[in-house]
Amino acid sequence: MPKPKQTPAKKLTSNAAVRSKRVARGPSPDKTAQTKASIVRAALAEFLEKGFADATIAGVAQRAGVAKGTPYRYFATKEALFAGVVQQELVGALGEILGERRGRDESVQAFLRRTLLIALGEIERKGRAAMARLVIVEGVRFPALVEIYRREMFDPVLDQIKRLAPVARRRGELPDDRLIRHPHLLIAPVWMGILNNQLIDRDHPVDIAGLFEAQLELMFSGEAGR
Question: Which parts of the chain fold into alpha helices (H)?
């Protein structure tokens, strides 16, 4: 028996349903980005307060004010969430620094003061030193944290020094090639300060930026070899 023809009213209802399905889309890209950023900021607070081992995705979701399963939409594991924190909260600031160009007549020493020294002045206040300490303390148990931090933070800074040291030597700013052979020398005081301020002698914190500045002056003045 042939099916009855669809009435115009039914066609209208059907078309409205199709349009309704088309309109019912997911959150906008801006909203998605805001949610992800909020989760990452919450994760930073969770990691700094509880450490990596004791931090939980549920705790991050509660801090961010989202459902328990929402962080998993963006980060499959806690290690991936840690990487997200490093990339958003640490690498973002580092990228601005490393993206700076040295002025045509600007000395390497002046350039390092203008970029790295300013960033180091905020290293404790912004939680960057605390994240480094977390990697030091829990890195043996969770080697993925070390790899993430080394790749995203440590290596880019060291590579910058490796590129600039030969330039400074050619310009006559360095008295010898020690910084070329040992680029770690320039950032060693930074790590000494990071370790001292919470792990070695928290009652007598040191100025990390001040340590870096003193080492910068020693390396570029040649006084370290006298």
Answer: 8-23, 29-54, 57-64, 71-74, 78-85, 92-98, 108-112, 118-120, 128-138, 143-149, 155-170, 178-181, 184-195, 208-221
